[in-house]
Design brief:
The structure holds 3 protein chains of 3 kinds. The termini of chain B are far apart. By secondary structure, chain B is of the alpha/beta class. In chain B, helix 5 packs across helix 7 and helix 7 packs parallel to helix 8. Chain C has 2 domains: about 40 residues; about 230 residues, MetI-like fold (Orthogonal Bundle), CATH 1.10.3720. Chain C is about 75% helix and about 0% strand. The chains are: A mainly alpha, B alpha/beta, C mainly alpha.
């Protein structure tokens, strides 16, 4: 391997490490909600700083790489993709952080019934799965897997669209759960954002491997194109 | 990496009345690759040739100030001794055309009249050629003339010849400017290996090359050392506007 | 094609033709000389011609053994004198091209090259023959050595100047002292050029007659004593060709033919050597 390839590999490893961290942040924020574990929530908030540090480090490494190696072709696309993926991952980290803060803010334990009725738990798990699968797609440069992400993002969108109705139903049934229901709605909105971010990441992976720009195409074209 | 091996103190050099290198102060760390870049005629090559006292071979050339090698002024050492400690590779590959590949590698011993037992010679040749990633390519044609090789191979042979003397510092005077891109990248890859054992000072007018191969970069302009910093800093955030103008190609 | 272009092409072809014609013209005199001398001389050459001493007038079958061996000895001697001095001087001129001494040396060598051979002969006569009291082979060798010197110096200098500076630098950068750079790098790399310079200078003096008239003088007997007069090929040709006897004229033609073949051989040998020993830079 040439020295340049070694440096590229180092950047890729860095991104993977950040990715794993963000996944675990999301997983932990979910656990914090499920078990109303304020300590775990505080840990997530604390570790958000590490995610931010990763973002700065990767940005800096990309900058150095551009300055020093003046990459072209696949190397150039890789770095451009990495810079955007880096950005998206940091946003997902922010989302995990935001959800953890709900746990810290909330005065009383959440009503588990609202979780179940709105499908939040399933949505949460799906969001984490999608993120993991996108990481695999990035690691293996697997564009077929990256393309499958678009469809699964639509599932998350489905949860999101149904959320108003579901949350409304819960509130109509029992006005006592109003606060919890609003928290859940916010969380569902945030998870929908996670879906968008992963979709963007999948687009970047396809751009980097195949040099195809899929942004702003309709979903059908994306899955085939 | 941080102990200093070569240090210039108020170093000046002249060609007759022409002041070519002006008051250079620089501390070069051990086991690092240092790139020296700058436009043509900025004194970078003259400075490099001052380090191993090749400068004084040119009629009319003089120097003032000190170049310290491990704390000793090279001007007070015998030039022959200096050049054994500080090897040099030139712009054009210059293997000895009358010698075989094998003899070229041990030319520093052979032509200096230092006799070595055959086993020792064999060891040095294999070791040096392996160091420059040439052993695999030439091990079956060691008796052929050095000039039989391609340009890139010849340049690596010249590096092997310098490495065979086990110097502490290796000077490179635009080592790839006569080579094609593939040979160039092979030589550049070599720098990353060589700096583990030697201190490399590489003069280049190709700033991309300076960026790629070096840990630290010195920028010379009009005979002055304008800036000397970590390569990454130099190419992302140069302190001097002249450096900025040069690396962004804004010099007219 | 327009007329103008045709006219220009025509001019080009005409010029090409002219250069070819003139180059052929250069070769013509050489061919005439070769053909004439070989025709006149080759029939005279046989084993006896080469191995017998000259006979007095009237006797047939004389040879040129003494002249042949004498020439070899005189030339060998002058080569031994001129070559080391010439090569070292050439090295100095190429290594210190800027120095004052080199400038004056180069000038002197050039002037020496232009000095007529007869003048050199006279000088050798006054400096060596007169003090010694008699003609001698050694005085002839010295005169010829003086003639060789500029050729050797300049050919050495020019050969070495053609070697790239990077070669010297390679040597110095390996910590080699000056004398080793010269002996181990410069001379081996320029060897074929230096050698061909020497060969050409030998070829050049082989036929010199004028300096030998006052020095080696000639000797009808076989002699190897460098302190005594000695016969050489040019002298025998000069003496026999200016004599009134037909027998001796024949001998002169034979000797001329031998001399010509010798020079030709040296030239060919030079070409072969410089091709074979040529160092690929």
């Amino acid at each position: 391997m040439t020295h340049m390839e070694i440096e590229l590999q180092a950047i890729k490893t860095e991104v993977m490490n950040m990715w794993v961290l963000v996944e675990s942040q999301l997983q932990k924020s979910k656990n914090a909600i499920m078990h109303f574990d304020k300590d775990l929530a505080r840990e997530v908030v604390l570790r958000e700083k590490r995610v931010n540090a990763f973002e700065l480090k990767i940005d800096r490494d990309c900058e150095d790489f551009f300055a020093i190696y003046q990459p072209v072709a696949i190397d150039l696309r890789f770095l451009l993709a990495v810079m955007k993926i880096n950005n998206n991952l940091e946003r997902i980290g922010d989302i995990a952080d935001g959800i953890a803060k709900y746990v810290i803010e909330s005065l009383s334990d959440f009503d588990r019934n609202v979780f179940a009725k709105t499908g939040m738990i399933a949505m949460y798990e799906e969001a984490i799965h999608i993120l993991t699968d996108t990481r695999t797609a990035f690691e293996k440069e697997d564009t077929a897997l990256a393309r499958s992400i678009f469809k699964r993002d639509e599932v998350l969108d489905g949860y999101n669209l149904a959320a108003i109705q579901n949350v409304g139903d819960c509130i109509k049934k029992d006005i006592e759960v109003l606060n919890d229901a609003l928290y859940v709605l916010s969380i569902i909105r945030k998870l929908e954002r996670v879906g968008d971010q992963t979709k963007n990441i999948a687009e970047e992976i396809i751009f980097y491997v195949e040099a195809k720009v899929l942004k702003h195409l309709d979903p059908k074209a994306k899955q085939n194109g | 990496m941080e102990s200093t091996i070569v240090k210039a103190v108020n170093y000046n050099s002249y060609f007759g009345a022409n002041h070519v290198v002006k008051d250079v102060n620089i501390e070069i760390p051990k086991n690092a690759a240092i790139a020296v870049m700058g436009p043509s005629g900025c004194g970078k090559t003259t400075f490099l040739r001052g380090i191993n006292r090749m400068h004084e071979l040119i009629p009319g050339a003089t120097a003032k100030g000190q170049i310290l090698l491990n704390g000793t002024d090279v001007m007070e050492m015998h030039p022959i001794f200096v050049r054994l400690k500080i090897g040099m590779v030139f712009q054009r590959p210059n293997p000895f055309p009358n010698l075989s590949i094998y003899d070229n590698v041990i030319a520093g011993y052979k032509l200096n009249g230092i006799s070595l037992p055959k086993s020792e010679r064999d060891r040095i040749v294999e070791h040096s050629l392996s160091r420059v990633a040439l052993w695999g390519e030439v091990k079956d044609s060691l008796t052929k003339k050095g000039t039989f090789l391609s340009g890139g191979q010849q340049q690596r042979l010249c590096i092997a010849r310098a490495v065979a003397m086990e110097p502490e510092v290796l000077l490179f005077d635009e080592p790839t400017s006569a080579l094609d891109p593939i040979s160039t990248s092979k030589v550049e890859e070599l720098f990353h290996e060589l700096k583990k054992n030697y201190t490399l000072i590489i003069v280049t007018h190709n700033m991309q090359q300076a960026a790629r191969v070096s840990d630290k970069t010195a920028f010379f302009y009009m005979g002055e050392l304008v800036e000397f910093d970590d390569t990454k800093n130099m190419f992302t955030n140069p302190k001097d506007t002249r450096t900025q103008n040069y690396i962004t190609g804004r010099f007219s | 094609m327009s007329v103008q272009v045709k006219y220009r092409i025509g001019k080009s072809i005409a010029f090409q033709g002219l250069t070819i014609l003139l180059s052929v013209l250069c070769v013509v005199p050489l061919i005439f000389i070769l053909v004439y001398i070989i025709k006149a001389g080759v029939t005279k050459i046989n084993w006896n011609f080469l191995t017998n001493l000259p006979k007095p007038v009237g006797e047939t079958g004389g040879g040129i053994k003494n002249a042949l061996l004498g020439s070899v000895e005189v030339i060998a001697l002058s080569t031994i004198i001129a070559v080391p001095v010439g090569i070292l001087c050439g090295i100095y001129l190429s290594e210190y091209k800027q120095s004052k001494l080199a400038y004056w040396t180069r000038l002197s060598v050039d002037i020496l090259q232009g000095v007529p051979s007869i003048v050199i002969g006279i000088i050798a006569y006054f400096w060596i023959v007169k003090p010694m009291g008699h003609f001698s082979a050694i005085s002839g060798s010295i005169a010829l050595a003086i003639m060789m010197l500029p050729i050797v110096v300049r050919s050495t200098e020019e050969t070495l100047l053609l070697l790239p500076d990077s070669l010297r630098e390679a040597g110095y950068a390996l910590g080699m002292p000056f004398h080793r750079v010269v002996l181990k790098v410069i001379i081996p790399c320029g060897f074929s050029g230096i050698l061909s310079g020497v060969m050409l200078s030998v070829a050049r003096i082989t036929g010199e007659t004028a300096p030998l008239l006052f020095t080696a003088f000639g000797n009808p007997y076989l002699s190897f004593d460098i302190g005594q007069p000695m016969q050489t090929l040019p002298l025998i040709i000069f003496n026999y060709a200016t004599s009134p006897y037909n027998d001796w004229h024949d001998l002169a033609w034979g000797a001329s033919c031998i001399l010509l073949l010798w020079v030709l051989l040296l030239n060919i040998l030079t070409k072969v050597i410089s091709a074979k020993w040529k160092v690929q830079l």
